[in-house]
Amino acid sequence: MKTLAATFERFGGVMLLPAILALIAFLAIGRPSTWVTLTVAGLAMGMMIFLMASGLSLIFGLMDVLNFGHSAFVSFGAFIAASALSFLGVWVSGGNALLNILALMAAIAAATAFGALAGWAFEHVIVKPVYKDHLRQILITMGALIVADEIILMVWGGSPVPVPRPAVLTGSIVIGDVSIEVYRIFAFLLGLAVYVAMHLALNRTRIGLLIRAGVENREMVEALGFRIDRLFIAVFMAGSALAAMGGAMWAGYQSLITPAIGAEMMILVFIVVIIGGLGSVEGSLLGALLVGLLANYVAFLFPKMSLASNMILMMAILLWRPYGLKPAVKG
Amino acid sequence: MTSVTATLPLAARHRAGRFLVYAIVLAIGAALAFAPFLFPDVRAQEVAARICVFVVLVASYDLLIGYTGIVSFAHTMFFGLGAYGAAIALKTMGPGFDAILLGGALGVVAAVLLAVLIGLLSLRVKAIFFAMVTLAAASVMMVLASQLSDFTGGEDGMTFSVPRLFSPAQPLVTGDDGKALRLFGTALNGRVAHYYFVFLSSFVLFLVMLRIVASPLGTVLEAIRENEMRAEAIGYRVVAYRTAIFCIAAIIAAFAGILRAVWLKYTGPDVVLSFDIMLDILLMVVIGGMGTLYGAVIGVAVMTLAQYYLKDVMAAGASLAADVPLLPGLLNPDRWLLWLGVVFILLVYFFPAGIAGTLMGKGGHK
User: Fold this and answer.
1) I need a labelling partner for A217 at 20 to 30 A (CA). Which of A26, A115, B6, B187 fits?
2) B255 vs B356: CA distance, rounded Å
3) ipTM, 2 dp
4) Do A322 and B125 count as a contact with CB atoms less than 8 A apart?
């Protein structure tokens, strides 16, 4: 048993879990083409959730602030991207691939920029007065979530909003008898790019070093003379921007969005953050991939169990590792 | 008023504040106790019954958030278990008190089991972690309720009938003319019995909770809230106490769910499980004041009255301001939650102790 555990750790430890899950699913599903389609869908979904979850996790890790209003950024990102895409009309629907990409980039950029700005305002108005007070943090960010949801309802109304998808990203690629939606590949690649960028920024730059040090021991970094509150504002803005970007991507994936989008995603995001361990980017990626893959496999194998399966996954992982798979802060 | 109270010494001011709180709570209690005679119209009855049930629900939530410092988002889950237990039993066994008893008991047992499971699994970790776990659990319960539609009626919920004693056609005391006797202009029929069933049950549950917080258990809970490490060091097993109060709160919430189902003769995700209900509970407990059960009474009364009557005021305001740009949109009756959210944020900033807590001079939680 011990040697088994040691071997498991040597080959990557918990990072192997998504691969193991995919393998089990392969045996359970039995048809390679279906399995490939589901796996790609799961990876794409996982990457989009990762965008939303990583910021939340990092914000918590650095400043011990849990933002229950994080889903507001997801909703705003989704709706702003939808509005931007409808505004750019011909660019989106036309056959010109370059214009398509430009329009999509513009929409995602608009959502991300809004996320960063709103994050700055949110941090100043809502979060700053209640540092180090968990109960009031939860309450006040909850209140902010109510207000944000109402503003979305006021601006965009309660009925579903269609999201036009750029022509170049519609349709699917067929390899043999496997068909893969282009948008899923795009979502996966974007998520991967963001992860690599975050990884490099955290591990190769001076600011990243400070952030990691801050997550590990905030007081020590402050004592050494660094203004960790400024750093925190930057992280908060980046996290909110990522949430908005994830929302924008998710909007394009769903192609019809309602104001409930934030609340729906929030549950998954929480589960991901809990599974991954608070404060860790790798943990968020791991959790997001697990949740995305499991959601898609289970939706195919036992359609009724879809959301409950993630809950069961969370329970199981909490029993095994009470602080998540790869925690950066000890609870 | 403020200038007078400001000159008083602090202790006297707090005594006066406490007296004021008791007076308000007594007035609310009296209004509820005689509601069928004071406010005979149907809508007011509805409001009164809702206040009764929510006082129990919010007070039980206050046991968690105010007394012990546990933030849970799963309270509607337990509320829903009680409501669905009673509803399913009344639907399958037909209207009768045995159905209410059996279904209610099953709902309460389910609530306790779930509470023990969640509590032991996750109450040993950080408060914030627990909040996230309960939020996820509650949303799964909501999805289950709408997916298991054979049992629960799905999104539409289920309607059922209640024992005949509660029907408006059932006279309690028959007068000379063979109809229900009238007292202060209100016919003593089943509707009155129905209301008093809800009121008296809520009253008893509220008294039970008052007893709990006055007991040694309540003191230990407050100690845990104030300083967990010290409580543990003195020798109290924090996880056990937390799990215990989480179960007690779950039981009481399930009872409140039974009352809600029996009063409405309907149970569905929107009235017992939805996240909006959870938000209502949260707003009520914060507005009233965390850490005092009397605060729960005040918070529920204020919020419920606002919910039922503020919309009318806002509609009137919107039609008055129809020519001003933007203002009608802000005053749209559907946007009342926006204003409530703003008020909520301001309250958490400036009066974290809520109405009752501020009046009684209790500080906010650290």
Assistant:
1) A115
2) 25
3) 0.78
4) yes
E-assigned strand segments in B178-334: 182-183, 186-187, 266-267
Q: What is the pLDDT of residues B127-174, one digit of tens each?
A: 667 887 888 788 888 888 887 777 777 777 788 777 777 777 666 666
Q: What is the pLDDT of residues B94-134, one digit of tens each?
A: 777 888 888 889 989 999 999 998 888 777 666 667 887 88
Query: How far is the C-alpha of A29 from the C-alpha of A38, rounded, in Å?
Result: 10
SS3 assignment, position B188? coil
Own/partner pairs for A219-225, CB < 8 Å, 24+ apart? Answer: none
Does the CB of A305 have a partner CB in chain B at under 8 Å? no
CA–CA min distance A270, chain B (Å): 6
B348/A contact by beta carbon, under 8 A = yes
* SS3 state at B189: strand
Pairing verdict, β B182-183 and B186-187: antiparallel
pTM of the full structure: 0.80
**How far are the Cα atoms of A82, A152, A250 from residue A264, in angstroms, in the given order?**
18, 15, 11
Tell me: pLDDT of B290 over 90: no
A319 touches chain B (CB under 8 A): yes
Interchain contact B129–A (C-beta under 8 A): yes
Q: Does B345 contact A270 at a Cβ distance shorter than 8 Å?
A: no
Do residue B69 and residue A319 have CB atoms under 8 angstroms apart? no
What is the per-residue pLDDT across A94-112, written as a single tens digit (0 to 9) for each? 667 777 788 888 888 999 9
